[in-house]
Amino acid sequence: MSALEIRKVRKDFGSERVLKEVSLAIDSGEFLILVGPSGCGKSTLMNAIAGLEPVTSGEIHIAGEDVTWRTPAERDIAMVFQSYALYPSMTVRGNISFGLEMRKMPKAEREAAVERVADLLQMSHLLDRKPSQLSGGQRQRVAMGRALAREPKVYLFDEPLSNLDAKLRVDMRTEIKKLHQRLGTTIVYVTHDQIEAMTLADRIAVMRDGHILQLGTPDEVYNDPVDMFVAGFMGSPSMNFIAATLEGAPGRFQLRIVTPEEDDLVLPWPRQRETPAMTEQVGRDVVLGLRPEHFSEEDERLAGQAEGTPLSARVSVSEPTGADILLRLPLGEREVTARVGPTCRVAPGERLALRVDMARAVLFEQANETRLA
Ligand SMILES: Nc1ncnc2c1ncn2[C@@H]1O[C@H](COP(=O)(O)OP(=O)(O)O)[C@@H](O)[C@H]1O
Ligand SMILES: [Mg+2]
Predict the structure, then answer these.
(1) Strand partners, 310
(2) Is the shortest distance between the CB of 145 and ligand 1 below 6 Å?
(3) Whose atoms come closest to the Cα of 52: which ligand?
(4) Ranges for the ABC transporter domain (predicted)?
(5) pLDDT tens per residue, range 243-283
């Protein structure tokens, strides 16, 4: 039985269909992350699960029960949303225990629950303060604590860390991960932060225009995207899309990339990555997808024996990030981004010998942007 099941849920606001038959089953203890561009319907879906907005059609089941027409309080969920509001006149202790009081939890149990989450979120020393005496990050913890004081069937988090500065986000992210590992709770979590999605999720649902394009493990959505949208959405810097023509035949497919003022670049497509659909696309325009980390600087010590397909390009920009260097270089009609090691010494305008790991490349049909191989 799923902890949470969304069955063909639609939501219209007036004439706008914001959710288009979304179906999703979330296992007990699973950490599911929803990602997608702004306005694609993530919060609408969360509000529908929470019962804050009625659905237009479809059903929502929590722990096997149809809760579609139940109030938020009857659904046994706890939420932390982006615009969390604390009660300004109450102390932290009061804020955390208020919801429990409303649920008629006896005083001794309430106090124990407050101690437990204060300990968990390392905020025992803050319990007697008012929200106005807390930093933004501390307030965020209180909002989190208020949700975690309960043990609901499902937690819903809608961009809970988006108001925090970078350092605090990272700390809170680790804390949420630890909490999930320790408590094994079922969580649906919306974020627009790539790293949050990749590090926290058991599975990621990528949404666009009111529907789910792909649902899979972080590894699946990152390395095996269903289409160009998912491929381009996941990862930072984004996957490079390179216009190419597919040539050859099974066993010897290759990609021809026309680059202005240079000879055409021809990259053999790895045999083990061939798909039957490629045969029909010979002679057509395709899009080669290469992530920045699929490039590497040619290692001269290996005397050309390194893995990967060699290529060379004139570097236009070199951007050291500290941990590595992002290079911009022309490949085909546009520039691509390559991520190389921090010791790569190359000046703008110089040619650099690179290797590209074609075994990890992905291929799309240009016409409809779907995955070809
Ligand atoms: N209460 C509402 N009334 C009318 N339109 C809404 C309402 N809430 C959201 N929308 C619209 O639904 C779409 C999805 O919004 P939302 O779910 O907030 O997106 P996301 O959280 O993915 O950024 C947007 O076009 C938004 O304008
Ligand atoms: Mg939103």
Answers:
(1) 355
(2) no
(3) 1
(4) 4-234
(5) 999 999 999 999 999 988 888 999 999 999 999 999 999 99
